[in-house]
Amino acid sequence: MMEELHVLLKNRDVIDPTSAQAYVDAGGYQGLRRALSLSPKEIIEEVRRSGLRGRGGAGFPTYRKMEFTSQAEDPVRYIVCNADEGEPGTNKDRILLSTDPCAVFEGMAIAARSVDAHVGFIYLRAEYSYLMPILEAALKSSKELGYIGKDILGSGFDFEIKFRSGAGAYVCGEETALFESIEGKRGEPRFRPPFPSIRGLFGKPTMLNNVETLANLPHILKNGAEWYRSIGTENSPGTKLFTVCGNVNRRGIFEFPMGINLKELIYDVCGGVPDGRQLLAVQTGGTSGAIINADQIDMTLDIDSVSASGGRLGCGTILVIDDSNCVVDIVLNNLDFFREESCGKCTPCREGGTQLYNLVRRISEGHGTVQDLENIESLAWTLRTTSLCGLGHSTAVPVLTSIQNFRDAYLRHIDKDFCPVCAQEGGHRK
Amino acid sequence: MSQEQYSYKTPESLLVEVADIAAPYRDRPEMLMKVITRVQKIVPAFSEEVARVIAREMDITLTQVYSFVTFYAMLSVKPRGKYIIRMCKSAPCHVRGAREVVKAVEDQLGISMGETTPDGRFTLEYCPCLGLCDSSPALMINDRAYGNLNPQSARDLIKRYIREDVE
Ligand SMILES: Cc1cc2nc3c(=O)[nH]c(=O)nc-3n(C[C@H](O)[C@H](O)[C@H](O)COP(=O)(O)O)c2cc1C
Ligand code: SF4
Ligand code: FES
Question: What are the residue boundaries of the structural domains of chain A, listed by start?
Answer without folding.
Answer: 20-229, 239-322, 327-424
